[in-house]
Specification:
Layout (H helix, E strand, L loop, with lengths): L1 H15 L5 H12 L3 E5 L4 E10 L4 H13 L2 H25 L6 E4 L4 H7 L3 H13 L5 E2 L4 E3 L12 H8 L3 E3 L10 E7 L4 H12 L5 E7 L1
Parallel strand pairs: 2-8, 3-4, 3-7, 7-8
Antiparallel strand pairs: 1-2, 5-6
Helix pairs in contact: 2-3, 2-4, 3-4, 4-6, 7-8
Length: 222
């Protein structure tokens, strides 16, 4: 059943997003657009952590790349994003280390549930972290893939409309495996797309309760 689902999904994806050099086209578009942007939320919704992102999700190339990464398990997409993001991220981290004492951070991906991982076979946030970590080689951050777990399978956030309902949907869905591993540690929490910030907010609350130090959010697109 699972293999049949993958086969149907891939065939559907090829119709919607044919290969025809998408990666090459997107690579050029992304290289031109890559620039870190900080977002603290609007007046009505303040994020609990500073949020940094690079691209507008409305950009067709970016949207197509994220779709391929998320649903086609395309590691070449993660490599393209990683290559174009890393230098900008490190410049920001160098400034944060001086002005905000944000040093030696852990890079933690937003996890997905075991059920969703079995179904999809892939966590796009972990793939992006891995691509960044391969380039960085522990110079500016340390990749920590198994610190945060998704312990509750929740309804897809895309099906939940308002922020309050999204937060309620995610309540108590994350857990830290070992509190001592993040005690007073600075953290970069990575997700693919920033919309209302509900997923990142719940994950941040969990990490803070478990003893984490300062936390910043990093997303590919907003």
């Amino acid at each position: 059943m699972h293999r049949l689902f993958i086969k149907i999904r891939d065939r559907f994806a090829n119709i919607l997003f044919p290969q025809n050099n998408l990666e090459k086209e997107a690579d050029v578009s992304i290289t031109d657009a890559a620039k870190i942007q900080k977002n603290d939320g609007d007046q009505s919704i303040k994020y609990p952590s500073p949020a940094y992102s690079f691209f507008a999700y409305r950009t067709e190339a970016v949207r197509s790349m994220i779709w391929r990464l998320k649903y086609r398990c395309d590691m070449s997409v993660a490599a393209i994003f990683g290559k174009n993001i890393h230098d900008h991220l490190c410049e920001e981290l160098a400034e944060l280390s001086v002005w905000s004492n944000f040093r030696d951070p852990l890079l933690i991906p937003i996890p997905i549930s075991k059920k969703k991982l079995r179904l999809r076979g892939f966590n796009q946030s972990a793939a992006l972290c891995k691509a960044l970590a391969t380039i960085d080689e522990n110079r500016f951050f340390v990749y920590a893939p198994n610190v945060l777990n998704k312990v509750k399978d929740t309804k897809s956030q895309a099906r939940v409309k308002d922020k309050r309902s999204r937060l309620e949907n995610l309540k108590d869905s994350f857990a830290v495996k070992d509190n001592s591993s993040i005690n007073n540690r600075n953290i970069i929490l990575l997700d693919d797309v920033l919309t209302t910030g509900s997923t990142l907010t719940e994950a941040t609350n969990t990490l803070k309760k478990s003893g984490a130090g300062n936390i910043i959010w990093l997303t590919i697109a907003h």
